From TrEMBL, chains A, B, C:
Chain ranges passing through the membrane: 42-62, 83-110, 130-150, 157-180, 200-221, 233-258, 270-297, 304-321, 327-346, 358-376, 396-420
GO BP of this protein: ammonium homeostasis
Species annotation: Leptospira neocaledonica
Membrane topology: Multi-pass membrane protein
GO cellular component: plasma membrane
PANTHER family attached to this UniProt entry: AMMONIUM TRANSPORTER, AMMONIUM TRANSPORTER SLL0108-RELATED
The protein, known as: Ammonium transporter
Secretion signal, residue range per the UniProt entry: 1-18
Family the entry assigns: Belongs to the ammonia transporter channel (TC 1.A.11.2) family.
Keywords assigned by UniProt, alphabetized: Ammonia transport, Membrane, Signal, Transmembrane, Transmembrane helix, Transport
Annotated Pfam families: Ammonium_transp
Record domain Ammonium transporter AmtB-like: where: 44-447
Length: 451, 451, 451
């Protein structure tokens, strides 16, 4: 403890305290403010990152709640390990691919991790870069964890573990570098950065990428036993709506880190505006999906209503910094409707996505990215989108980003999953699927009864 | 993303960065500090607001845990939708009623939402106002969600949805404007603001209002089938103490946003003092209710102990900024005792409140508001209350606020619930109540067993 | 509310606002920055403290999930009440012992008095001291709550209540004052402070102390009925892996307050570096324990994998501020392996610790404290540990701290538990243990089925 205090003193002395000794000047005061501003920005970014980390718990609960009790240990382990393994993979490889000046030159820096070569400056850890790194790390973890739900209840654990490493090391960061690579180093210009692509917090970069990877996975796997029989879609109900609802509350909370935190700065208070647009898209998504299910099924359905809020949140993620509250509500309302019909559509074409991850993250991520080209407003800090006199150019850029995101994430994941299928096998045996994955994959039960 | 960065630069240039170009002066340094202070205040208020938002999850879990499994989907949907719908209603109407300069003049501003006319200044979103708005919004959501528990297990979903909109649009903000309306605009002076009413974070404004609305609802509904038979009170046990306990932990956490965040400022570090008083009232409430149940029932009861912590939290909400730790402990101890006897009292007069919401929020909210007139101390930033040489004046003001709060919230809610009862009907059928609301209201079960 | 606003103005006027009136000088600007820096430090410390508070929920869920349904109310009540009672005890006695002016300097025993005597300065609450107090309070609560798991499923509730008071009032703060007493007042010099002991956030001070207290408790109690029969270790499975996993996610989140928040300052952004090392040790612990169970049991086990992440977190707590990411990963990897073999070892010697608390907190706390002497690096703000050219001196100091921590926490707790055993009795009756503690200790069930 003593040592840290000395360290803190040492750091602090570069800021305000040194000025107690040196004569006070306007320059030294401005420098002290600048130092505190940096530290406040890092603080906000880290706190936001902690909230985003907590989304891992939200995903785990939503996916566990929406699937059967016999596969719960498996779902929990997948959600737990994708972040643990993903952390290591992103540190070793992914971060440098996404933000490093050149991938190859990074390798020679004498470190086992490519990230270290970016984080350690003059032999010392750089707090601004560590801040950026932890924030980007939890984003990578989010993309990875989305896949878990779409492939639930029939995937071998070892395959999911391998894919988690590959998506955080390669699939996610390669597209991320196209769209966001100037964030760390202004000289890095990904293709979509140059084009002016708006994806503020990652409707496409994080959510669609995760969703399309899940789509590839569920297609390669095929549907669960008993889901589609005699031309009918048979419901396979999740086992616990209480934890699913808790999961959605946690995700909503986490999104207050995800979107507002993507400012990585307190400058201008933009984070507050984003918090509001984020909240209203979520609220609107919940309302519209509830109404749609009420009309379609005569009763307000809990599962789709919960997914409606997530649909609104995913959709507002790209445009959150550039739209008004009214636009955020429209974006959320459309997301909430879209997710219901998307879930019904994928069931119709027999793509079995147990938790609706492809619809929520893939489809609504695409919608949100397009919406940025429609609803962005100069008054809210963006270019003008189509509906605010901005012409069709921005919309075309958005469509381009959506298209490249789909081709890359779906394509790369398809290759990986096919590779796994034809080598170690991707799907558990029929017996295991019927008995549940918990016993045979883990030797555990989620809810044992022990006397 | 690029656009946001440009935006951030633009905002920031009004603060410190512009001074790199302009000559450094003491004035520019002071202005840079003032800008960072504003941003830090907004940051704290937003983070506190996120914690208050998370209380929605806490309420959902407490209410679900304290009621039966057959009504769990219904409780979850109520807690989820009251915030979603309440957000929209508060934006459309409630916020402008509570804080707008005049209600009527606000309507003409060419926006579908009354709030927008207060939030957008010179055609641009004002971050200080967005910050204030999101913080007030989550408070309105809290008042709404309290009602859900008191009316659990027998209310039609559609009625609850309608009431959620009405409380956030009208019932809550009208009383709120009496007590807090100077917060947004110093020229707005609600009657209780003028009188010097102390309700720092809303023991009355939020909690009692929610509690008394719930009391009106449960009286109009009547007790659940089987609760009172042959002059006896029969226990109807909740189905999951684990999630109820988790809910209380989440609420306790959320209260660290609710009370300390009501400073909406880091100035003077008052938030830290409030965090301490808040924690000690909660701890004391848990301890005293545990002891009372241990004496009454010979065993320490979990349900009432959990409610005891909430009682302490509700009670400290009004006086939290103006009392010492010792006083906070006394306020919490009394709250913890009060809630046990209040729960027993309401059962005695056959007012069936399944989760104790009226006792926790209504009764202990009143107690806390009165306690502010007893325990406030100048040394802790308040006037002196009765026990610290302050005379009876402040106490009378507190009693007036409690009284007006009761008359308004109970009266207005009674009118609404009676109106609903005699039009579309407020209570589900006897058959539905016995079978559980989940199937007939939602077509869902909370814990399905699917093979 | 009005009163608080006046208060805020009054406080604020000592900072920036007064300078609007006084002539702007470089000194006044520097003073304004210094005020805002203080407030920002307090804000960060309080927010971190809120996250640490939330760890109480994490511990409650982990312990409830890893034990049987018939003892769930008991576990929840223990986890709830140890913080409530611990708050009061730490305020009444513990805080002053830990940080008060030392009666016997060196040995570490401060004044026995109300915390108030340290918190109220010149008749007014000091926000910097309130900030420090709430942060230390939630740490004391953590040490107390660890014990609950080790003694689960067979301890009388009243004994646990008494022990909770004693550990927060005496056991924890006396060792804490040896290691950390200088934090509040630089003139306080505990023996280990003088020796240069590194335990940044409490691998030993908090976790080992809690773990060794639990070890004493479980030894005095003896194993649960049916755990060790005919030379075999029979599994007694926990009842809910979903809530256990949620508990670990919450603990991981809370640790972002525990370790980074122990800076109690934003100065230099050290918190960001600590957030990264903390995360990587957790991730590495989860990975290595998963791999070890996969090898040992042929399947990746959920319970030990979850404990592996906790092992990594406990281990990094001492060295988190002074090691590189690579070292953090090694420390976590070792922790994850260690916890598995430690759990097997304690079962082998028939020490029955239902949730693995002794292994996670005691053993891995010791490992982490030793690791600080091995992996600390000057570049990361520490002295150099053995592996970075630092010689054996620091390692010997670390071993000394580990040893004193064990002797004190185990010894003092053993005395207390033996005292309780031979007076009021420590263990429930055989009948009660078989029937479950919930009914006989609390008159409650965790999961009642009410029609």
């Amino acid at each position: 403890m003593r040592i840290l205090i000395l360290l803190t003193l040492a750091f602090a002395s570069s800021g305000i305290w040194a000025d107690d000794v040196a004569p006070a000047t306007a320059e030294s005061a401005l420098s002290a403010v600048a130092t505190l501003r940096d530290e406040t920005n890092w603080l906000w970014t880290c706190i936001a990152g902690f909230l985003v980390f907590f989304m891992q718990a939200g995903f785990a609960l939503v996916e566990a709640g929406f699937t059967r009790a016999k596969n719960t240990v498996n779902i929990l382990m997948k959600n737990f390990m994708d972040f643990a393994l993903g952390s290591l993979a992103y540190w070793l490889i992914g971060f440098a691919i996404m933000f490093g000046p050149q991938i190859i030159s990074g390798i020679g820096f004498g470190s086992v991790s490519l990230a270290d070569s970016l984080l350690i400056v003059d032999g010392k850890p750089d707090p601004s870069k560590f801040t950026f790194f932890i924030f980007q790390l939890v984003f990578a973890g989010t993309a990875a964890t989305i896949v878990s739900g779409a492939m639930a209840e029939r995937t071998k654990f070892v395959d999911y573990v391998i894919f988690s490493v590959l998506i955080t090391a390669f699939v996610y960061p390669i597209f991320g570098s196209l769209a966001w690579s100037n964030l760390f180093n202004p000289d890095n210009k990904g293709y979509l950065v140059e084009a002016g692509f708006i994806d503020f917090a990652g409707s496409t970069v994080v959510h669609s990428v995760g969703g399309w990877a899940g789509l590839a996975g569920t297609i390669v796997l095929g549907p669960r036993i008993g889901k589609y029989q005699d031309g009918k879609v048979l419901p396979i109900l999740g086992h616990n709506m209480t934890i699913a609802a808790l999961g959605v509350f946690i995700l909503w909370l986490g999104w207050f880190g995800f979107n507002p935190g993507s400012t990585t700065s307190v400058g201008g208070g933009t984070f507050a505006i984003i918090a509001v647009t984020t909240n209203f898209a979520a609220a609107a998504g919940a309302v519209s999906s509830m109404i749609v299910t009420w009309i379609l099924f005569k009763k307000p359905d809990i599962g789709l209503t919960l997914n409606g809020a997530l649909a609104g949140l995913v959709a507002i993620t790209a445009p959150c910094a550039n739209v008004s509250i009214s636009s955020a509500i429209i974006i959320g309302l459309v997301g909430g409707v879209l997710v219901v019909f998307s879930v019904l559509f994928f069931d119709k074409i027999k793509v079995d996505d147990p938790v609706g991850a492809v619809s929520v993250h893939g489809v609504c991520g695409a919608w949100g990215t397009i919406a940025a080209g429609l609803f962005a407003e100069q008054a809210f800090g963006g270019v003008n989108g189509l509906f605010f006199g901005g012409g069709i150019d921005q919309l075309l850029v958005q469509l381009q980003g959506v298209g490249i995101g789909f081709v890359w994430a779906f394509g790369a994941s398809l290759v990986i999953f096919l590779g796994l299928k034809f080598t170690i096998g991707l799907r558990v045996s029929e017996d295991e699927e019927i008995q549940g994955l918990d016993i045979l994959e883990h030797g555990n039960e989620a809810y044992p009864i022990s006397k």
